[in-house]
Amino acid sequence: MSPRSTVHTAAQSEPPPPSGREARRKQKTGKAERERHAARPLSARGRRARAEIEHAALELFAKKGYFRTTVEDIAKAAGRSNAAFYQYFANREQLLMSLSDQFAREVPARAGTTVIRPQSANDWPFFLAAAQAYWDSCVANRGGMVAGFSIRNCR
User: Which CATH superfamily is domain 19-154 in?
Assistant: First the structure.
């Protein structure tokens, strides 16, 4: 093999992996895209489709766990395509964060208050109502709870 052919072969090899700066730029771009993705206002049809995807995910996370549930599984259970999933969520982790945010808003709503704060340390009716609201929310969102605990225990 001549030196000329060696140079030609080296020019066709795979490009080097991105540098630290390039990798950080790509990571920031992904974050900006996810934020822009979540900011779009939804029509009534879009809200219904997103709710169906979230409901399907909760059911699958409860049955199979977070790590064994794929985007394809969620889309199929919701009667949607993978592309429909990605219209509403950038990835499975963003879906889980959305479910977690809903849970955090749901507990005070179930307790009949906007802020969970007792009047005093002896406010037993409040503590019982808050505990019941938390329990009811956990039961209603068991798939999200399973997924959240799975991720936390694996890190």
Answer: Tetracycline Repressor, domain 2 (1.10.357.10)
